[in-house]
Specification:
Blueprint (H helix, E strand, L loop, with lengths): L10 H14 L12 E3 L1 H11 L1 H19 L7 E18 L1 H20 L6 H21 L3 E22 L3 H67 L5 H36 L5 E3 L3 E3 L7 H11 L1 H22 L4 E9 L12 E8 L8 H66 L5 H35 L6 H6 L3 E3 L2
Parallel strand pairs: 1-4
Antiparallel strand pairs: 2-3, 3-6, 5-8, 6-7
Helix pairs in contact: 1-6, 2-6, 3-6, 4-5, 6-7, 6-9, 6-11, 8-10, 9-10, 10-11
Length: about 500
């Protein structure tokens, strides 16, 4: 047996041996994967919409904001309440009689002559005597009376009182509160839309990420299986003396490296499967049925996406809601510097137990104006205006950043699309190169390393093409999300004209 290949006289024999090995080689290894549920991208999107905790939380926030806004719709209505008290009380009254006694003494002195003069049948001297004696006794009588009296009252009473207060003028506080509540609803909706967009991008990343790892695994296994066949051929050619041991060892090293790549691809694919399963919250693994894809034609001009993004991006809507909320804060701070007018009423539901100073009922109109407050209202108004200015600048910054984001995403879509299309010719060239190198090897005109390099180049081209498609999906999802057109992603999937089958 010769130690190296005989390129001069053994080409025909080596070619026959190589062909025989190819015909008798086993088919490519196909690993048995666990049973999985097939899911299209649209089905996965529907499932995510029902299973996402983030979306449910965002929906709850919107509901809470809407309920708060509805609560402010009745701020102009009266507030009616019932105040019920059960109390034990004692009240002391001190009443002065000095003035009353003086008036009574004076009146009695004036009335005495008339009283005694009208008695019929009584002699005049007797009447005069009686009158004189009464006049003498009258001061002593009034002097003997107390100058004041003290009255005490103690009781246990039940006091139910209904009161009503209705605002008439609040200085603009009520409209400000309503505007703030409406702005909170808009902000909650914008946050929900932003969370939904992030979930959609995450679904694209995870769903097509699993498809990419599956392609990487298929490519790794195909490369490994190709090296298995190449190694068997090299071993047979070595036994026949047409190949050196060094070249056979080169094939062995390449085959072992391919096996390590398979092991890595299997673990990465398993991680991707678990990620998609957890994201969709399903019990069994999911098999993506929507392939990696690319649209050969470029998307619409970038200005179209920029225009819709300026009107529909949730971050801009959130910034606008923040500006409205800040302006409502200015109005509320201003209302604290104005008077308020209100109507009120009270009705005693248990008049029998009413205190002496309490009315049976009362209605009226009141006004309140704070002359001096422990809180500097002028500075609070200045602070609210500063917040409004800051919110306006945040909106401007958001618009600028969204514009740049859309342009960057658009360029990434174009880059990945062009790379994918250029890799199609590279893939065809790599396939042809492998065919030529294998033929040259069979003819003894090319070393084993040339076949190794050609097979690795083919695997790399296939993987780069799949990666370019995956990058296209991610960039497209980012572009559509940034421009407020995320619902159009499925349309791009439907009209894709370049696909990499699962």
């Amino acid at each position: 047996m010769k130690s190296g290949p005989n390129f001069g006289i053994g080409r025909g024999c080596a070619a026959a041996l190589f062909a025989t090995t190819v015909l008798t080689a086993p088919s490519a290894f196909a690993a048995q994967e666990p049973q999985a549920v097939p899911f299209s991208y649209d089905a996965a999107s529907v499932r995510l919409d029902a299973a996402s905790s983030i979306r449910r939380a965002a929906d709850a926030e919107v509901t809470a904001a809407q309920e708060q806004a509805a609560a402010t719709a009745t701020l102009n209505r009266p507030t009616v309440s019932i105040d019920a008290q059960l109390l034990r009380y004692q009240k002391t009254f001190d009443i002065s009689l000095t003035d009353a006694l003086g008036q009574a003494e004076s009146i009695a002195g004036q009335l005495l002559p008339g009283l005694t003069g009208d008695l019929p049948g009584v002699p005049g001297d007797v009447l005069e005597t009686i009158n004189n004696r009464l006049e003498q006794a009258l001061p002593e009588f009034f002097a003997s009376l107390p100058g004041s009296i003290r009255l005490k009252s103690a009781d246990t009473v039940f006091r139910p009182v209904a009161t009503a207060v209705m605002p008439i003028y609040t200085g603009g506080a009520i409209p400000a509160l309503r505007d703030a509540a409406a702005a909170n609803v808009d902000m909650a909706r914008a946050k929900r839309e932003s969370a939904s967009n992030l979930e959609e991008v995450n679904l694209v990343r995870t769903y097509f990420g699993q498809a990419l790892t599956h392609q990487a695994l298929v490519i790794a296994r195909d490369t490994r299986d190709g090296f298995d066949l190449h190694l068997r051929n090299a071993e047979a050619m070595e036994r026949e003396g047409f190949l050196s041991a060094g070249q056979r060892l080169q094939v062995q090293v390449a085959r072992d490296a391919a096996q390590r790549q398979v092991d890595r691809a299997e673990l990465e694919h398993d991680t991707a499967v678990q990620s998609l399963t957890r994201l969709l919250d399903v019990a069994t693994p999911v098999t993506p049925t929507t392939p990696l894809f690319v649209n050969a034609t470029p998307p619409a001009p970038v200005d179209v996406f920029v225009e819709t993004g300026m009107n529909q991006h949730p971050r801009i809507a959130q910034a606008e809601a923040g500006r409205e909320l800040a302006e409502a804060g200015v109005d509320l701070a201003r209302s604290r510097m104005r008077p308020s007018v209100f109507a009120f009423g009270a009705y005693n539901l248990n008049r029998e137990h009413a205190l002496p100073t309490e009315p049976d009922w009362a209605v009226g109109v009141g006004a309140r104006y704070t002359l001096m407050s422990s809180l500097d209202r002028g500075r609070m108004l200045s602070a609210a205006r500063a917040r409004a200015q800051a919110a306006d600048q945040v909106g401007r910054q958001a618009r600028d950043e969204i514009r740049i984001m859309i342009i960057r995403a658009y360029n990434l879509v174009e880059l990945s699309r062009r790379q994918f299309l250029s890799l199609e010719s590279s893939l065809a060239a790599a396939q042809e190169n492998l065919r030529v190198q294998e033929l040259s090897f069979r003819e003894g005109e090319a070393p084993a390393s040339a076949v190794i390099d050609a097979r690795n180049l083919l695997g790399t081209a296939r993987l780069q093409r799949a990666a370019a498609a995956y990058e296209y999906e991610l960039a497209l999802a980012a572009l559509l999300t940034a421009s407020g057109r995320s619902e159009e992603f499925s349309a791009y999937v439907q009209r894709a004209d370049r696909v990499i089958a699962p």
